[in-house]
């Protein structure tokens, strides 16, 4: 359940999700919030318009990393989709995202981690963790030889 943010709404009681519609990281948070039935307002942040709205001063105050998603909730601003989902799971346990059984929960985490490290091709804004390069349309290649231990 979500509402578009409107100046006439009392947003003090509703979390605000800064999101881009094509961002798989934003999708994860929207799905989690909808499954947990948490009402929220969306503040769209275009990663394309005007060179990327995530780079504007107003949004930099919300998330200095200049990435989506960011979630303002309970008087805090959270960033990073998995950290946001952990927070939601810990603070709103009434509709759990993970199974209670420890083995099933680990299987769900394995699936989540696989999806995290194999992003959809529709998200060309970040380097692919497997090192695919710009020529494949997924952003700059990671040079693992320059990383500590690489």
TrEMBL record:
GO terms for molecular function: maleylacetoacetate isomerase activity; transferase activity. Residues 119-150 are annotated as: Disordered. It comes from the Eukaryota. InterPro entries: Glutathione_S-Trfase, Glutathione_S-Trfase_N, GST_Zeta_N, Thioredoxin-like_sf. CDD domains: GST_N_Zeta (cd03042). Residues 123-135 have a biased composition (Basic and acidic residues). Coiled coil: none annotated. Belongs to the GST superfamily. Zeta family. This is maleylacetoacetate isomerase. It comes from Drosophila melanogaster.
């Amino acid at each position: 359940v979500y509402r578009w943010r409107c100046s006439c709404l009392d947003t003090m009681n509703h979390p605000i999700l800064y999101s881009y519609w094509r961002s798989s990281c934003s999708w994860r948070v929207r799905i989690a919030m909808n499954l947990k039935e948490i009402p929220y307002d969306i503040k769209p942040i275009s990663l394309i318009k005007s060179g990327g709205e995530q780079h504007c001063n107003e949004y930099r105050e919300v998330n200095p990393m200049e990435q989506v998603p960011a979630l303002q909730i309970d008087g805090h601003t959270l960033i990073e989709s998995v950290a946001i989902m952990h927070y939601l799971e810990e603070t709103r346990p009434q509709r759990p995202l993970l199974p209670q059984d420890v083995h099933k929960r680990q299987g769900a985490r394995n699936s989540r981690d696989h999806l995290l490290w194999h992003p959809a091709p529709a998200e060309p804004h970040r380097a692919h963790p497997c090192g695919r390069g710009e020529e494949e349309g997924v952003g700059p290649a990671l040079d693992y030889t320059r990383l500590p231990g690489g």
